[in-house]
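Give me the fold.
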Amino acid sequence: MKFLTALACSLACPFLVGQSPFLFSKAPGLTPMELMKLSSVRSVMVSPDKETIAFTRSVPRAPTEGAGGARSHLFVLENGKERELIGGIRSVRGAAFHPDGSSMTFIARGRGVSHNEVHSMSLDSGETRRVTTTPHGVSSYSWRPDGRAIAYTVTDEAPSARSQAHSRGFQQKVVDEEFSHISMWLWDAQSGESKRLTKGQTVFNFEWSPDGKRLVAGIAPRNSVDASYMFTKLHLVDPKTGKVELLIDTPGKLGDYAWSPDSKRIAYLSAVDRRDPSAGTVFVVDLSSRKARCLTPDAEGMFHHLEWVDTGRIATAVSFGTRAVVRVIRVRDGSLGPLWPSASKKEPGLAVRSFALTKHGFAAPASSPAHPSEVFEFRRAKPYRMTNSNPWLDNVQLGKQEVLSWSARDGMNIEGLLIYPVEFKQGVRYPVVIIAHGGPESHFSHGWNTSYSRPGQCLSARGYFSFYPNYRGSTGRGVDFAKADHGDIMGAEFQDLLDGLAELDRRKLIDLKRVGINGGSYGGFMAAWAATKQTKHFAAAVSFVPVTDIRTKTYTTDIPWESYLVHQQEQWPHEHPGEVRDRSPLTWAEHCRTPLLLAGGTSDTRVHPSQPHMLYRAIKFATKTPVRYVQYPGEGHGNRTNTNQYDLCLRSLRWLDQYLAPGDHRNDPLPSLDLDYGDWISGRK
């Protein structure tokens, strides 16, 4: 958001319900093939009466199904057992309970219809029927609480002249000017008719008031990623008249929001100012006075999700460093406490970032160091595991994961996670790979942290430490900590990594001559910086979708205003050219002595493909250091296709294995161009 016994039958056998189409066997540590078959719970929904729990599970495609992304299947829990509602080759989007609780609804295409509509499936009979008939289809939707209407959004059609030109082969794109708004419509269940509610604005998200009289919506002046990040404001929409009015002129990023049960107030997550990297602070606005009040002005954490318990309390998912838990905020004074004050003070050891209130507590997708996200129901703070998406994982020996704290050279306390080698022996110094997160407005929680681009447990199986630092600039420690890298990109924040390595060396755990780094996006930026400016510390680096030149990245990204307002202290690159040049890995390409693997998608709009390409060419032409650049056709800012994910995982592990082997391998020849996909082709581990 990020789980049946092992099979011995061959791929030729028909798959039984719940069985994995992969073959595998017991072995110490997680293999790349096992990593690629991990399923995880993505979202949890609770029925209106708070009794029934439904959930979606991300299920990867098997190698025999060819290239493609994971599917999202829908399930409901009945008497503690899961029942599949939508599975197989189908994938669900926008799953929700009907307001009367009798069915699940979702977005799909029906027979004879070229666009998406809302469909429903009866929980009793399993019968599926089409619900809406709209002029242009449905992108997202929300039921009015009485079940008699649906508010939905859809992207406006292009002007007819432009559409006709496109149909005749004119496929040009005018940058920053050619876009269509996302408009809100209202579908009436009785008449079956739709009416437009907004025009000339883009509605990114919305929610009905409990009394069904109004909607609150996040609305921006244009349809762009940048606008969704930086210029989305809270508005009220009258579904009868279509009147749209600004409620709160939020100063920067806008996050989750929720109505109070009496429809008189709205709690919302927002940045405290436009330089705040995240919408992680809680506010409440009174609808009668239109005055907003910050409930968590000095909290040293980051808030993720909000649900009202009653008119005086708000349940929230919050991160305190590596801990991700659920707490309650009292609206009266902003005090923060446990949902059940009388419950045990011991934390359950699970990472929770979203939840849904139930009759007896709450349900949530929660992960631990031992497994990806599963459905847990928490009753008086005690967690009950409701699903097991990867039962075979219980037979895989994993590396121990623990929280690591250390003091930076300026005295600031820094925190991160450390995954040990599977067969760790005290007194042996092991190679270590830093896993650097992106953002940098992001952080690692003490849950499951292994993926195709962050192969921590796969590295553990191969005898490495994996080090996941939450360096300054990360979220989860309050606004000041998240801003601590502003004006000093790749300065103290990178030194935090080096100081973390020094702590591991002090504990006699790692071999400082065998240090690698692996990261994507901003983490890729860090890996590229490590390989160039900080090359003496690193024997190998893997840099995925990386920033390599701040100046050109700012002018080619789909989030230039976010870069300008949040990360560059409201200066464009031409206004501080010296700093921009000095803190760009491309500037230091000729100093690179660290074998560097670069990778990225050809359709990346966040970090233009020219970024890794430029650094690749600069290092190749200026040095004799091993460097390779792998492009993934059609992929954006991250790989969605299973084959591309597997390829990156294999290439990264092979690169690190070669250049972090004992001895000096900085000048070794490049690994073979081709990989051995035999396990993928055979479906074996």
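The longest strand covers residues 510-520.
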